[in-house]
Amino acid sequence: MSELDHKDKLANVLSASINRRGFMKLIGAGAGLAAGSGLMGGPLMQSAHAAAAPKKGGIIKLAWIDAVDTLDPHFTSSLGSVKILNNVFNGLLKVSYDGKKVSFVPDLAEKWEMPDDKTHVFKLRKGVKFHNGDPCDAAAVKWSLERVKDPAVGSPHAWKFETLAGIDIVDDTTIRMRFSKPYAFLPVALTGSTGRAGTIVSKRAVEQYGKAFGRNPVGTGPFKFAGWRENESITLERNPDYFEPGLPYLDGVQILLIKEPTAAVAAMMAGQVDGMSLSPFQFIPQLKSNPNLKVYGEVEGNYSFVGMNNRRAPFDDPMLRKAVAFAIDRQAIVKQGYFGEAIPAYGPISPPMNGFYDPNMAKTGRGQFLDLKKAMEYRKRSKYQGELNPVYIVSQGFTGSGGSGTRNSQLILPMLEKIGIKPKIELLDRAVWTKRRNGGDFDMYDEAWIADLDPDETIYPEWHSGKPWNFVGYSNPEFDKLISDAQDTLNQATRKKLYDKAEDILMADAPLAVLAHMKVFKILGKRVQGFQYIPVDLMNLHSVWLS
Amino acid sequence: MLYSATTKLLQTLLVLLIVSVASFAFLKLAPGDPVSIMLGSDYSKESYDQLSSELGLNQPVFIQYGKWLADFVRGDWGTSYITNQNIFELTVMQALPVTLTLALLSLLVALLVGIPTGVMAAIYRNTWVDVAATSLAIGGNAFPSFYLGIILIWVFGVDLGWFPVLGFVAPWEDFRQGLWHLALPAITLGAWYVGLVARITRSSLLEVLGQPYILAAKARGEPAWRVVWVHGMRNVLMPLVTVIGLQLGGMLRGAVMTEVVFALPGLGMMITTAVLNREYIVVQAGIMLTGLLFVTVNLAVDQTYQFLDPRLRRR
């Protein structure tokens, strides 16, 4: 197979998310075009800055209502952290958005080639330095990627490099990653944002700080970590040696850690902060009506759902699970649970996954949708007759359960009563909820998977037999095979077919009842300019300036 | 005097010991555990067991307690699992000053508003002034602090734009900015005590104003303000000190809500975060510190009595 064939294959993989000609440019098929920094996201930056010339200086003040656990990218499980990390670190690749499609573009990598379908060669940017002055070269990148994979390190993202057979240093700025089989998910895994596994960290800093690295992060990003006052604020300052010329514009970032969203919204309305990392749905109409604010938000790669415990009665019976899935009125959930800021979900694959998402799922009879007659039929055919009282665990709080766990459960309750199921809702704090979910101690639980970029991310670790987030204990060998095959296939059309079939099986077996695909919001004040919204719950500040 | 001080000290230590045992037991009984939180969604039984043993959480509870107590008394309060920070520094150096400042300012608000209100109500007894003052007092008591906090934020922070609605500036670093930032939280927390102080002041003053020595002072032709503020108030101070002293512990409880609403990095916020993370070791330190504050305040109130009422000094 010629080199170009492989590139073509990879281009196909990514065509879900990137315009093909653009992609060929990016991987350097035309040698003159792939000349590093000027190329990446070039047109996007120009359009963003066309209005006025960016001004240097100033400190942006942001209210952060989502939890920040650690600033070690290889360990965090919180998007509240990822949004900060993305300003301190870089990945080999990053996520870009042109207003229509999400794409993966080189970040620390300058060029990306595939000599064959299991080998990926990355040419790195020259002269990039970590915040502590160490060079970010091939050796540093190799060390960082191997840190994620090393079982002794215990990164929760290690699974993303399960099939990584080895990394070779070709020269100072070139590394070769060898995989045991073709790996369609790799582009996502290598992003420094939601993928996290491809985020490059400083070896010396990790060794120096040990477990405290998460409170003293050292990366290559546009901002350097400057301080963390517990329960109060995190501060970042400009990295004068940042590799994108002229960036960042801001002198620094002050992140105020807020527990009470109402207070953050008030500060936003009063103009006392410049932005909010996220906002609960109920405040959106109010924020939108304020002329001094800009509200960014689109339906992102996510889905909320009710999981049902396949391991024990009564939801070990697929008929009963199907009855639940068809009894739920998703329009009502969108309207009342999400204040209209969402769309109904008929399957787990979401709209931004272009080429995989099927908006007509309900019309064509695929997927799950409200059909009370069907629900009643399934209920009649179920093993368990009479009134049922499953335990429905719900977690309080905005970020938990996709933000609407308590509201959703209260909406779902009367819907299920119509088919003779009266769940007992148990409202738990997040720690207890997590423990019970992980331990399978529930009949139903409410959750959302968010910031996903690829069907693999949204399906594989969640619903494949025995995988880490398959808390309901779902197992179907045919489904497992389909999604494993999809992972090893680089051809887009074949992948689409495999996921369609897998999705049909999953929705028919109904280990979960899907609910909605939600919008995710960023609120910024009028004086904040140059912000590039990316619909994977990111808050990149490198191009932001204050007027 | 020495005897009574020693007895007090022993009593105090006993109280703290009971607090430590009770809080340790309650924490252990609380569902949810730190290991699963720290490991996130994806972990194996091996990594769970390994982390448990690293944290010493697989040992019997009384051994964990004993070890914790021994370390605590020696001043080694341990390191937070989550933040890797020294817990003594986290609680005593960082969080405590914030909470103490908030409590003191709230007390100031309570006294500055509550005493005049109570006095007015007593002097103009059964008039509209009394009704207004009493309503204010009851209102202050009835409003939950998180609700009042949010109302104040919207009215004075958002609509009028007079005060910052969140964030903390240490008054010892920037006095004016600090006070400005703490004004709304202090009013929120102080509101409850305004009611309390006003009610105590009113009822005690009414009692005092009927006494013969007040009549005597009036008969001597002393001005009304002197009669009330000098002769009357001296005798109102005792019940006021008692009640405020007893309620200062409760103020720490109110501080939790206030700190969360206004995003102030005090003890209340720290304990809340630690409870949510099931960080036993931090919660424990927070509770001990709170207990210590509580008994210290009680001791201080005792001493204040002796200062205010010379008769108590003779024993």
SSE blueprint:
The complex is a heterodimer of chains A (547) and B (315).
Chain A: H1 3-14, H2 20-26, H3 42-49, E1 59-64, H4 79-88, E2 93-97, E3 102-106, E4 109-116, E5 119-124, H5 138-149, E6 164-171, E7 174-179, H6 186-189, H7 203-209, E8 223-229, E9 233-238, E10 252-257, H8 261-269, E11 275-276, H9 284-288, E12 293-299, E13 303-308, H10 318-327, H11 330-337, E14 342-344, H12 372-381, E15 391-395, H13 405-417, E16 424-428, H14 430-438, E17 444-449, H15 455-463, H16 477-488, H17 492-509, E18 512-525, E19 528-529, E20 545-546
Parallel strand pairs in A: 1-10, 1-11, 15-16, 15-17
Antiparallel strand pairs in A: 2-3, 4-5, 5-7, 6-7, 8-9, 9-10, 11-18, 12-18, 13-17, 13-18, 14-18, 19-20
Chain B: H1 2-29, H2 34-39, H3 45-54, H4 61-73, H5 87-123, H6 128-142, H7 145-159, H8 175-209, H9 212-219, H10 224-262, H11 267-276, H12 280-308
Helix pairs in contact in B: 1-12, 5-6, 5-8, 5-10, 5-11, 5-12, 6-8, 7-8, 7-10, 8-10, 9-10, 10-11, 10-12, 11-12
The computed structural class of chain B is mainly alpha
Compute the CA-based radius of gyration of chain A.
23 Å
CATH homology group of the domain at 302-520 in chain A: Dipeptide-binding Protein, Domain 3
CATH homologous superfamily label of the domain at 95-312 in chain B: MetI-like
N-end to C-end Cα span of chain B = 8 Å
The secondary-structure element order of chain B is HHHHHHHHHHHH
Q: Which CATH first-tier class of the domain at 302-520 in chain A would you pick?
A: Alpha Beta
Contiguous helical run count of chain B: 12
Oligomer: heterodimer
Main location (chain B): membrane
Pfam families (chain B): BPD_transp_1 (PF00528), BPD_transp_1_N (PF19300)
Subcellular location (chain B): Cell membrane
Membrane topology (chain B): Multi-pass membrane protein
